[in-house]
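Technical annex B. To support the medicinal chemistry partners, we prepared a structural model of the target in complex with heme C, based solely on the information shown next.
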Amino acid sequence: MEPGDPTRYDRHVFRLVVVPLVLLFGVAGTTFALARWHPAKLVISSGSVKLGDPYRGATTFSTTCASCHGQNGSGGIGPRLQGLAVTLARVKQQIDAGGGGMPAGLVKGGAEQDVLAYVATLVKPSG
Ligand code: HEC
């Protein structure tokens, strides 16, 4: 046996180190490639509407909006918001301007962004 020839030990190292590394990078690479390609976009589109914290928004909703729209937007005097096909821009407009029996400007600024983030979890994203 010549010096430099692969030994049993070298082949062992190859199987224990190189093969798992190749598998790891192969799988990770495929995962990243698929993530970049992103065939199924499941993001809620908010357009240019800024969204805040949906958890804070849920609290504000229950104190400010639920009297008309029901707890969790299940409906009341105001329309049911669950599954309603509206854009968030439209929701923001309704909050800002009111109309049809809904008072304008019930929430503003950060509180409004929080409520919008919460409403985004209820309505059917339609743009
Ligand atoms: C005083 C009762 C009342 C309160 C409080 C109220 N709403 Fe409304 N809301 C209404 C009514 C009534 C309508 C239906 C308006 C119409 O048909 O034009 C409405 C409509 C809406 C719509 C539907 C807009 C559309 O285009 O379909 C959204 C979204 C909405 N409200 C969100 C909210 C949010 C968020 C809050 C809390 C910040 C809120 N509302 C508070 C009564 C209320």
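Notes passed to the chemistry partners:
The chain has a mean pLDDT of 88.
DSSP finds five helices and two strands in the chain.
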